[in-house]
Structures are given as structure tokens and as C-alpha cells.
Specification:
The protein is of the alpha/beta class. The strands form five sheets. The chain has a six-stranded mixed β-sheet, with helices on both faces. The protein has a five-stranded antiparallel β-sheet with strand order 4-3-5-6-7. A two-stranded antiparallel sheet has the order 1-2. Strand 1 and strand 2 form a beta hairpin. Helix 2 packs parallel to helix 3, helix 3 packs parallel to helix 8 and helix 5 runs parallel beside helix 6. The longest helix has about 55 residues.
């Protein structure tokens, strides 16, 4: 009996050995495992870098907005004089506002060099009208790459003593933000490291969140400095971002409020996904308007895509969604809503005809802007803030108005 049992054990052992993995199979399996591990590490690294980039950009823009608000406050409580020869005397601009300064990663001022470098510049816009552009540029280094962000405002000289004009009432501002699937893509398809041919490894939704937050913070700072109560509201589209969605609509994220930090907290949670119900996004913004308020009203629509969902929530490849968006914009402009609409095209894949038709007109040109990169989006929102922030006391020359809108060339909209 023992010999038979031994033979069975030996036979079993021999069969097991013959079914084992060969060297080639082990190498192949190990290679696949290594590939998955490397891909996972790269994904984690990319996500981490994206988070750091967004955090640093928001810190940079917050630093810039502090400087710009200081210049605005100085501009609106002082005036520029001229010398006997008529040359512009810019020495009245405080030295502190023209000094290069440095800050650490937590936005604390430090001796240069620091993590952030803040550089102010004055650029001539129109010498005859004594108009200059004040720009704050923030630079910092991130993963060996130099990053920049900037904000600007205008300052103006006067040959006479400037006189104050009556303070205009606060504004009601409703942002309508596109959070469709295309907003998760990188600006210009991203650089080679992100699989594209561009230079910015930053998703458009991240930039939009940061810029909206800075814009709202500017409104809050103006409220605090001038004692007005401008309100902000928020709508987005679509409301459904799952792959299982069969209908898409706009969504009211916040009613008009002076609790701006609460709105910023909502903005921080926005993700990207789904189709583009532009018309219903504008319709939801209309529902936020307070028709009993005497405040001037503004709706800011920012989108990177083509309207492809009709008001019934159905995907629609025809021109109907775009036409419905234009109709909703026309409703918003008319009584009892009386809103001024600003339209922003994000990136390079959009319908300019639709967005221009959505925008309100400023003389011969609509309030239509194109942002091709993160800094461009910053500049657009900064420009819009200059227009809608009418709650501050301004000063003008006796013979002219402020701010002096530069006339566009005949037939040309910029």
C-alpha cells in the first residue's frame, strides 16, 4: 500500500510541476503589472499637479486683486494733476502701488525673492486723454515651469480739478457657467505631457472655478470698501452629468445673495460632464432675477461649446437649441427683467454667431468676449467687473465722463 501511495504523490507532484508558469510567462505578466502601476502613478501625479496649479493660480489672482482694488480705491478718491507744461504728473500714484513685492506660498509678504513675485506696470493707452492701464502681473515657478497671472484697471489724468459724481446703486450679477463634458478638457488640448499640442496643462473647468471665485471676491471687496450691497447669483448647465442621462437642463445653484463666500463654496464643487443646454441655462438665470429690485442687472454667460440640447431637455443636432438660446437672451433683456448680458467664449470650439447674438450691445458692438487661455479668461472677467461695478464713487473731469469707453473702429468689434 505504501508504494502505491508514494507513486500517487510523486505523480501528483510531477503533474503540478508540468503545469507551472514558464519564465516567459512570468516576465510578460510582470511587465503588464508594471505598466498598470506606472500608469496609476502618472495619473496620481497629474491629478496632484493639477490641484497644485489651481491652488497657486487662485492665490496669485487673489494677490493681484488686492493690488488692483487698492488702485481703484485710490483712483476714485484722488485725481491726477498736470505740470505747468501740460505733461502728465504720475508722481501722485503711491510708491507702494508701483513697487515690486514678493510673497511666500501662503501669500505672506517676504523679502524678495519669494514664491510669488508681484510686478505693477503702467502702460500708455491714450496720452491725449491722459489714460493709462495699470496691470498687476504675478509670476511663480511650478515644477520647473514659470507661471503668470494678471489683472488690470485704468487710471486717468485730468487738467482740471476732478469732481465727484453721484454713487450709482449696487448691481445684481448672475453668472451662468458651462460645466459640460468639454470643460474637463485642457486649454488648447494641453501640452504634450497631457496628450495635446498646447502649452497649458490646466483643465478649463478648473480655470473657470478660480476666475469666478476671484470675480466674486472683487464684488465682495467693493461691497466692503464702499458700503454697497451688490448681490451675486449662480446658474450652471447641465444639471445631469452622468453617462446615463437622457435629458439635460440648466440648474439654479444660488439665488441672489450678498453672502458671497457661500456662493464661492458652491463654485468649488462644480465638476464637468454632459451635453450643452445653453437655452435652459439662460432661462434658469432669468428665474434668479429679482424684478422688484432697482439694482442694475447683469447676466454673464461663459461657455466653451455648441448648444446641442433644446428646451425640452432633449439632445438636438439642429439649429433649434442655438435659436432658443437667443430667444431666452432676448427675453432677459426686455421688461420686466431688463438685464445686460455678457457672453464669453471659452477656448476655440464655439459658435460665435450664437454667442454674439446672446450678448447685449454696447453701441455698434456686443458684450462678446473670447478667452483663448487662462490669462485671457482672467482679463475678460476683469473687464466685465470694470463695467458692472458701478457701486463705487467715481471722479470725473468737469468736461467729460468716466470711464471713457474707447470707440471701436468702424465696423470692428473687439
Amino acid at each position: 500500500m505504501s508504494k502505491v501511495k508514494f507513486f500517487k504523490i510523486r505523480k501528483s507532484f510531477t503533474l503540478s510541476k508540468s503545469n507551472g508558469f514558464g519564465l516567459l510567462e512570468v516576465v510578460f505578466a510582470s511587465s503588464i503589472l508594471i505598466m498598470f502601476l506606472v500608469a496609476g502613478l502618472l495619473l496620481i501625479r497629474g491629478s496632484s499637479r493639477n490641484t497644485v496649479t489651481g491652488k497657486d493660480r487662485l492665490s496669485a489672482l487673489t494677490l493681484a486683486s488686492r493690488k488692483v482694488e487698492a488702485v481703484r480705491a485710490w483712483r476714485d478718491s484722488n485725481y491726477f494733476s498736470t505740470s505747468v507744461t501740460g505733461d502728465i504728473n504720475w508722481s501722485n500714484l503711491p510708491v507702494d502701488l508701483m513697487t515690486v513685492k514678493c510673497y511666500d506660498i501662503n501669500s505672506n509678504e517676504v523679502t524678495c525673492p519669494g514664491f510669488f513675485t508681484v510686478t505693477p506696470t503702467l502702460t500708455d493707452i491714450n496720452l491725449a486723454e491722459m489714460l493709462k492701464k495699470y496691470t498687476i502681473t504675478i509670476t511663480w515657478t511650478e515644477y520647473g515651469v514659470t507661471k503668470t497671472a494678471s489683472l488690470f484697471t485704468y487710471v486717468k489724468g485730468c487738467s482740471q480739478t476732478m469732481v465727484p459724481v453721484a454713487t450709482v446703486g449696487p448691481a445684481d450679477i448672475i453668472n451662468v457657467i458651462d460645466i459640460t463634458g468639454s470643460m474637463s478638457s485642457y486649454w488648447g488640448s494641453g501640452p504634450p505631457a497631457c496628450g495635446g499640442s498646447g502649452t497649458t496643462c490646466e483643465q478649463k473647468i478648473h480655470t473657470a472655478r478660480d476666475v469666478l471665485t476671484v470675480f466674486n471676491n472683487q464684488v465682495a471687496a467693493l461691497n466692503a470698501s464702499s458700503g454697497i450691497n451688490s448681490r451675486v447669483g449662480l446658474a450652471s448647465f447641465p444639471d445631469c452629468q452622468s453617462a446615463l442621462c437622457t435629458k439635460w437642463f440648466g440648474q439654479v445653484r444660488s439665488a441672489l445673495t450678498t453672502n458671497i463666500p457661500a456662493v464661492n463654496a458652491i463654485i468649488a464643487t462644480l465638476g464637468a460632464g454632459g451635453n450643452t443646454p445653453l437655452a435652459d441655462g439662460i432661462k434658469k438665470a432669468i428665474s434668479v432675477i429679482d424684478t422688484n429690485s432697482t439694482h442694475p442687472r447683469a447676466i454673464i454667460v461663459a461657455s466653451d461649446g455648441l448648444a446641442n440640447v433644446n428646451l425640452n431637455g432633449n439632445s438636438d443636432p439642429t439649429s433649434t437649441p442655438a435659436n432658443q438660446a437667443i430667444v431666452q437672451a432676448n427675453i432677459a433683456r426686455e421688461a420686466p427683467y431688463n438685464a445686460t448680458i455678457f457672453a464669453i467664449a471659452i477656448g476655440n470650439d464655439f459658435n460665435p454667431t450664437t454667442l454674439q447674438a446672446i450678448a447685449s450691445n454696447q453701441g455698434v458692438c456686443p458684450y462678446f468676449y473670447v478667452a483663448n487661455d487662462p490669462n485671457g479668461l482672467n482679463d475678460v472677467f476683469n473687464t466685465i467687473f470694470e463695467i458692472v461695478s458701478k457701486g463705487e464713487t467715481t471722479y470725473i473731469c468737469p468736461e467729460e465722463s468716466w470711464p471713457p469707453p474707447p470707440p471701436p473702429a468702424p465696423g470692428v468689434c473687439t
